[in-house]
Automatic annotation (TrEMBL):
This is VOC family protein. Coiled coil: none annotated. Keywords: Metal-binding. The keyword Metal-binding applies. It comes from Virgibacillus kekensis. It holds the Pfam family Glyoxalase.
Length: 283
């Protein structure tokens, strides 16, 4: 459908900080079915297709546990290719004794769980875009109960859970922020996203290409919430994939026009939203 490929801007990679890399790798491999693409003593890139990575883990020096009531990661969301894949992982998680929540968002069906450090993970499938309801520039979303009986009817007994399907992608990211006005300016005027849903005065959902959202932001940890310490569990950064070098240049110019700096760190172009969430820009 093109929501996670060029020319759409989308979240292509998320880097998560953990307390114990080996413990986390056990979870992400045995429970979620990722493979390791690359590994160093303090970090690992995970893959589903054996060639690319959309999720990395790192163990910072002097790491401390996840801090509450701060800005940063609310959840990252893994998008599965087919509805039967979601049904299969429901069975798999249940067999493994993993607790999870669920929701029907109208545009999607989703599960929610936490890794060993409390980083929240959404695993979801999209409904066909023809089923999404738009009112002008806003798409209807909800938090309704998931119909498990209907979902599980899509299971193919000959194709049960064997790990993350190779066509799995990073569907979106949802962040805690300290306020919404400057945040909206950063993501709309700076990064070029459209607001596609406003959840009262507490959350915004943003996308390009008429997706239901590539990025969500909320103030549910409190207006004025502080940034977490650099060495705490949580999100290190997410990478925004842009169509080409011209789009990178345009985005950098737009960020500078609203007073936001872009710097190079370890070969990556890096900027920060008003709440200190680190964003890497890439082609």
């Amino acid at each position: 459908m093109g929501f996670h490929s060029k020319p759409t801007k989308f979240v292509g990679h998320v880097n998560i900080k953990v307390e114990n890399l080996e413990r986390s790798l056990t979870f992400y491999q045995e429970i979620l079915g990722f493979d390791i693409l690359e590994q160093s003593p303090n970090s690992a890139k995970l893959t589903t297709d054996g060639k690319t990575s959309f999720l990395s883990l790192e163990q910072p020096e002097n790491v401390i546990p996840k801090q509450g009531r701060t800005t940063g990661l609310y959840h990252f969301a893994i998008l599965l290719p087919k509805r039967s894949d979601l049904a299969n992982i429901v069975v798999h998680l249940t067999e493994k004794g993993i607790r999870f929540g669920s929701s029907d968002h109208l545009v999607s069906e989703a599960l929610y769980l936490h890794d060993p450090d409390g980083n929240e993970i959404e695993i979801y499938i999209d409904r066909d875009p023809s089923e999404w309801t738009w009112s002008g520039e806003e798409v209807a979303m909800a938090v309704d109960p998931l119909d498990f009986e209907n979902l599980l009817s899509s299971i193919n007994p000959s194709n049960l859970w064997k790990g993350m399907p190779k066509d799995t992608v990073m569907g979106h990211i949802h962040l805690h922020v300290s306020e919404l006005t400057k945040t909206e300016e950063f993501y709309v005027k700076g990064l070029g996203f459209d607001v596609v849903n406003r959840f009262g005065r507490q959350a915004l959902f943003l996308s390009t290409g008429k997706y239901h959202h590539h990025i969500g932001v909320n103030t549910w940890n409190g207006v004025g919430a502080p940034q977490p310490p650099e060495n705490s569990v949580g999100m290190e950064s997410f990478t925004l994939i842009l169509p080409d070098e011209d789009a990178i240049k345009e985005t950098v110019d737009n960020l500078q026009k609203i007073g936001v700096a872009v710097t190079e760190e370890d070969g990556r172009l890096i900027t920060y939203d008003p709440s200190g969430n680190r964003v890497a820009l890439a082609v």
